[in-house]
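Shipment paperwork, digital attachment
Item: protein structure file
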Amino acid sequence: MELTTERIDALRKAQELMDQRDFCPYLELKKLIHSPPDRKHFEDLFVRYYGLNIGGLTPDFRELFFDTLFDTPKVTSKDILTILETLSKVSRTNRKKGGCALQFSFASKLIAIHDESSPIYDRHVASFFNETPPNSKEAKNPKDLKDLRIKWFKRFLDRIASSYKEWAEKPEVDSILKQFKARDPALADCNVIRLLDFLVWKVGNAKLLKE
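Attachment content:
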């Protein structure tokens, strides 16, 4: 994706607006996952930081999510299909929406805590890239929609990762990242993909791009 002047300006503004609350919990989670953590503390921090309790998680989904997170420490973006299938076994919320759904954002966050080269997907990222998942109208057959959405998601994650790497090479973005890393020594050890995750999320959360 071409990084327009408008988007570079939004990333620059996002860096200026970044608060310790936007990244310090992640840095703590990163330390905890690489040592035998207090699981309850890790879970509570993870849920608060990523807003996983918005809409209400069912106890079954939360248990499945964190069992999967702790039982697959070597998971990478190549395992996205397996993770999606696993998380679709139970419903995320108690709201009736026609059964269990593909949990793209949850899956990306589960993988990303183990693999910093794997980007996070959420509505802010989709908006930044002007992307939306395929809907039923785009599937020739309703039964094909699941496969269509999974293929789209895998391609989009690859697109995000390659775009972030390309953007990080641009002098304007490199300057933004250097300013960001100067905020905390631990940020210097983060993959550029994770750093841009932070900034793109902030762009969306602070509504720094016009709709």
